[in-house]
Amino acid sequence: MKYANIREIFLSIQGEGPYVGQQQLFVRFCGCNLNCQFCDTDFETSKSKQYTPENLLQELNNYGKNLIISLTGGEPLVSVEFLKEFLPLAKNQGHKIYLETNGTLPKQLKEIIEYTDIISADIKLYSATGERIENGIIDSFFTVAALKEVFAKVVFDENITEEEINKIINIGKTHNLLIILQPKMVGEKFGVPVDFCEKILNRLLKEYSEVRLIPQVHKFLKIR
């Protein structure tokens, strides 16, 4: 029997990316393979509840039918063995799966890709996260993700470099991705000057058209 540690389950609106404002049921998994500097998520295992796939589905069904379930974290793909059992059950109930991931676990994604509908994957910048992700891993991930609807989210601050900007453009062009620029937040406020955000947006748009600047709307609304 597979288990997963779930930090919280809550119904809210999506506050990031092109689906901003859409009601989703969020399932926050514990555990992550990265340790990003800007991470503000409390997914400590000691504060979590352990679920079997059947237990989790039963609880989610209490919220209604044909839900859009956002798997978030932490990093949901760390719990891929659990997801391999849970996701077929959820899909059989008519639920839609929205996977939020750091984009660094292509092998795990491949194991559950058939059960996902939308993939929100990060492109981690060293200047913002302190994490160096190999280009090969990024390319492998988006190659797998291309089987479904996918877009890329890029958290940035004033330390973003020209090399990183070119990297974003190249990844977008290579994998035909919608790129979501997401300014780093400090609490409920912008952590990046608005004029700088506009500058970075315009810089990318000069070479790649599929770019949008979308902050974390849920923080402005003061909701989860």
Describe the structure.
This protein is of the alpha/beta class. It is built from eight helices and eleven strands. Strands 3-1-2-4-5-6-7-8-11 form a nine-stranded mixed sheet. A two-stranded antiparallel ribbon has the order 9-10. Helix 3 links the parallel strand 5 (96-101) and strand 6 (118-122). Helix 1 crosses helix 2. The radius of gyration is 17 Å and the shape is globular. The model has no long low-confidence stretch (mean pLDDT 94).
Write the layout of secondary structure elements.
Blueprint: E1 4-13, E2 23-29, E3 49-51, H1 53-61, E4 68-72, H2 80-92, E5 96-101, H3 106-112, E6 118-122, H4 126-129, H5 135-145, E7 149-156, H6 162-175, E8 178-183, E9 185-186, E10 189-190, H7 194-205, E11 211-213, H8 217-221
Parallel strand pairs: 2-4, 4-5, 5-6, 6-7, 7-8, 8-11
Antiparallel strand pairs: 1-2, 1-3, 9-10
Helix pairs in contact: 1-2, 2-3, 3-5
CATH hierarchy class name: Alpha Beta
- Spans of at least 5 consecutive residues with low confidence: none
Gap from first CA to last CA:
31 Å
Radius of gyration (CA) equals 17 Å
What name is given to the CATH topology? TIM Barrel
Share of β-strand residues: 25-35%
Strand order of the largest sheet: 3-1-2-4-5-6-7-8-11
Helix content bin: 25-40%
Name of the CATH superfamily? Aldolase class I
The number of domains is 1
The ordered H/E elements are EEEHEHEHEHHEHEEEHEH
Q: Which shape, going by the Cα principal axes? A: globular
CATH architecture: Alpha-Beta Barrel
- The count of DSSP E runs of length 2 or more, i.e. the number of strands, is 11
Structural class: alpha/beta
Q: Report the total helices.
A: 8
Q: What assembly state would you assign to the polypeptide chains in this entry?
A: single chain
| Largest pleated sheet | 9 strands, mixed
